[in-house]
Design brief:
Elements lengths: L2 E8 L2 E8 L12 E5 L4 E4 L14 H35 L5 H23 L4 H15 L3 H8 L2 H13 L14 H15 L14 H8 L6 H22 L1
Antiparallel strand pairs: 1-2, 3-4
Length: about 250
């Protein structure tokens, strides 16, 4: 049997692992492999893994905030993933319906189904979780939540949905930009590492970005300062409420 060597390069470090492979021939095109050593066939299959730098935290306290945020991402990711699947199914079926009346009837049927499936659980989300969900919908569908609503309903309804969301300091027009927005970078960092560790089922983003390149530029630095301030304010509000109850 031939040895298959997977080489993982983390910034300036090279870690080499070797495995045995039962196949004596390559079942996929040769251009998906790179020959790295003569003799025994040593190859790297580039589309099977992502190379990410080690995360760098300023303090142990920052690690706790990162994992607090990670729990939020894990909670809402399945909703965004399922929403994307439902919309893909909806659009595929709509493309086969010629009658406008039947399209409208089918859209209403799917809307009622999706709202029934999601509404009770989504209502329980915190503001942070709701914001992450809106951003992940953009990641998973390629359109903002506002654009998705506008496509299925009228623009007037989309306006009122967005106005309602703004009451809770959220916008259905939130976009997802992991290259330029720190929160989006943290979300994508959590997702990609979860995919690699089989903690979440991978669903490819419909937005075009190279997270490996983004992560290398960031040098693995994790910035959670905004969440420290956010949770500090929440704690202060909680203490004030408790104080009022005692009075």
């Amino acid at each position: 049997m031939k040895k298959l060597i997977y080489i993982y390069i983390l910034l300036y470090s090279v870690i080499t692992f070797s495995q045995k492979r039962d196949k004596d021939s390559l079942s996929e095109p040769l251009d998906t492999y790179i020959l790295v050593k003569p003799g025994d066939t040593a190859i790297v299959k580039l589309n099977e893994f992502m190379l990410l730098p080690k995360r760098k935290f300023k303090s142990k306290k920052d690690i706790r905030y990162y994992f607090w945020f990670k729990s939020k991402v894990f909670k809402v990711y399945p909703f965004a993933k399922l929403a994307s699947q439902r919309l893909d199914t909806l659009n595929t079926r709509l493309s086969k319906i010629k009658s406008k009346r039947k399209k409208k009837k089918y859209i209403k049927l799917i809307q009622d189904y999706i709202e029934g499936e999601f509404s009770d659980q989504v209502k329980k989300l915190t503001n942070t979780e709701g914001r992450i969900l809106i951003k992940l919908i953009h990641r998973q569908t390629g359109k903002t939540a506002f654009q998705n609503i506008k496509a299925l309903r009228s623009g007037w309804n989309a306006f009122w949905y967005n106005t309602t969301a703004n009451v809770f300091k959220l916008s259905l027009k939130y976009e997802y930009h992991p290259a330029s927005v720190n929160e989006d970078f943290l979300i994508e960092d959590i997702l990609q590492r979860a995919f690699l560790d089989d903690e979440l089922v991978r669903q490819k983003s419909k937005l075009a970005f190279d997270f490996q390149e983004i992560a290398v530029k960031k040098k693995g630095e994790i910035d959670v300062e905004v969440y420290k301030k956010l949770l500090a304010k929440q704690l202060q509000r909680y203490k004030r409420k408790q104080k009022r109850k005692k009075q």
